[in-house]
Description:
- The complex is a heterodimer.
- Chain A has 15 helices and 10 strands.
- Chain A is globular and about 80 Å long.
- Chain A starts with a strand and ends with a helix.
- Chain A has helices spanning 68-74, 77-85, 92-107, 113-141, 146-166, 186-211, 214-220, 228-233, 239-243, 250-253, 279-303, 356-361, 363-367, 373-383, 387-391, and strands spanning 2-4, 7-9, 28-32, 44-50, 53-60, 175-176, 179-180, 323-331, 334-342, 350-354.
- By secondary structure, chain A is α+β, with helices and mostly antiparallel strands.
- In chain A, a hairpin with a 2-residue loop joins strand 8 (323-331) and strand 9 (334-342).
- In chain A, helix 3 packs antiparallel against helix 4 and helix 4 packs antiparallel against helix 11.
- Chain B is mainly α.
- Helix content of chain B is 67%, strand content 0%.
- The radius of gyration of chain B is 22 Å and the shape is globular.
- The chains are: A alpha+beta, B mainly alpha.
- At the A-B interface, helix 4, helix 5, helix 7 and helix 14 of A face helix 6, helix 9 and helix 12 of B.
Amino acid sequence: MTTIQGVRLDEGERAAPTLPRDILTEELVFNMGPQHPSTHGVLRVVLRTDGEVVREAQPLIGNLHRCCEKILESLTYVQGLPYVDRMDYLGALNMEMGLVLSVEKAAAVEVPKRAQYLRVILCEINRVISHLFAAGQFGLDMGAFTPFLYMFREREEGLTLLNEVTGGRLLYHYIRYGGVTRDVSDDWKRKCIAWCDQVAAHMDEYNNLLTYNHIFLNRTVGVAIIDRETALRYGATGPILRAAGVPRDLRKDMPYSCYEDFDFKVPVGPHDKGVVGDSWNRHRQRLLEIEESLKIIRQAITKLPAGDVSNPKVTRGWKAPEGEAYVASEAPRGEISCYFVSDGGKAPYRARMRGPSFYNISLLSETSRGLLIGDLIALMGSIDITLGECDR
Amino acid sequence: MILAEATPLSHHLATWLAGLLGMQPNWLFSAVGALLVATVILLIVVTPVGLGGVYLERKLAGRMQNRRGPNRVGPYGLLQAVADGVKLLAKEDILQRGADSPLFRFAPYLVFLAAFAGFVVLPFAPGVIAADLDVGLFYFLALIALETVGIVMAGWSSNNKWSLLGAMREVAQVVSYELPLGLAAMCPALAAGSLSLVAITDYQAGPIWNWLLIRHGYWAIAMVPAFLLFYTAGLAAAKRAPFDLPEAESELTAGFHTEYSGMRFGMFFLPEYAMMLSLSAVASALFLGGYHDPLGLSAPGGAFEGAWWWGFLWFFLKTTFLFLSQIVLRWTLPRIRIDQVMYLCYKVLLPIGMGCLVLSAALRLLG
Lengths: 392, 367
């Protein structure tokens, strides 16, 4: 056992001794992160490599732990809600959804139909933005700078849309117990449809520039395969699981917030290139999911029912009655769910959040064996983690 | 740039210096004078190449990426590069613990020297060349290899594993691209029967069909692939995307120059542009007729025979075109993986290069 800065490294498999005895090669131990450009936040990975070949990669998480669950337990219901936004800051609305759904189920709070539709619209915009970010970031990891900024162009417009309704660009605090804070205007609905058209029109550009670029294909097709069994064994969810060929999407399988009203498909790998579960398929999966999300947004805006957007019974000092519930929902990175217990007090007794990134990053050590460092970057980029939600 | 014309200048300088000290001008004063002239010329070359190259790259990248690029310092942001240069000069020069001090300090100079010494053999215009070496092309290729030594020194002495990995990649890359680069450069040399860049350029005098790329039509079958080969391997030599593996910021943080700060970093940063420019210049001299225009006005007997400004204009246009195309490629393509670079160079480019060489030899024999 070697110990590096408090981290025990298993010996693992050694490089086959093909070299003559007098040429001794040693394994290098790299400390990748938490300031590395491709670890997407404050992830630290300890690498044991033989030259450029990764023998072992051990993710060390916890640098961004902010006691999110404990904070939820010590503040009142209304006060605690904005904190979940900070978990996955790239899909903040979906994080709010994760907590709110459980609390509403436990307390049997009714949510007006219009509010449910608005939640769907805004969560899907958030999903599109998050996937654009992830796909662009992946391109950046592969050395392609320009597609990233093209995707940011559409992301920026999307953020403006969200800003107009919620008043925030990154952290929204829009979904509340029993509804949402604000209604949308007809003008906003038109803008939203126009934005959907804009994103759809630019999909070809992304695909030509990045997805079907020959160099990009060489870098990602067949690289860092996460197969069906491995993904299921580690509890991976979201685009990673679907790219591995498992048609698991909670919006379809366990519909919440009126998702059953909308007609959309769940793209499942393998897609037109590569093998099931490789880096390219995970990237393509996100772009295909963007197209499905745009369909949902369009339908929800056309079908948007009239009525209130919040439940008047939920007031400032509102408390959930005694009870417990567990509801899972589909965030951009996978399954976000909350096991919520109330003892009737002013704060939740327990709000245990299950975020997808924690489970997805666990795949790193098993999948990274034998990859080159360049491929490891492809693996990390295509897994797409948010440390805020992994560490909570 | 114009050392041939500057030699009298250095002589005057030496005489003046000796007179100042009341001594007879001897070889020492000549050396000092030559050194001063060389320094001034280097400054004249380095400033526009480095700063102009950086400005062009940033502005063009901005245009490609829906941004404006630098537009705050000076008109159209023209002084941005100057401001950055001043900033680099003012920054602390950090020598981190565990670094191999002499090597670490010397490496940037070696890289800088190798990149800018290549300018000596570039034929900018008829008669405007610092040294018309008989083996100019060979000298140029040798300097590219010298730069690698500096990079390996930097990576090794930094006491940083990412830097070391960057240096290892540079070595792996250099042994891969040098063979196709050399083979591609040999084709025009074979056709023109000389290794002197001036001789090769003048061999292409006359209208556009005299340029080696498409010489008399049939030369194109050997020269077009050779040109593309030279261009591709040149990208690898200048460490430009998609071959920027030794720095690969998303993989190795900044590769071999991770630990460098201040002007020492600048010494790695500027040569990249010098390398791009000199490679473009050599490519245009080898394949695109160098300082000769497409109508043949600069050919012997033409209207602008020997007019340096006319030659310089065409040389500048061709070189800038290739330079800009390198920038556009960088901001379009993702990065290749290190084993793919070696695969590409050994198994794809090298056979093509050999084919080109054989074809060129055959064409030379026949025509």
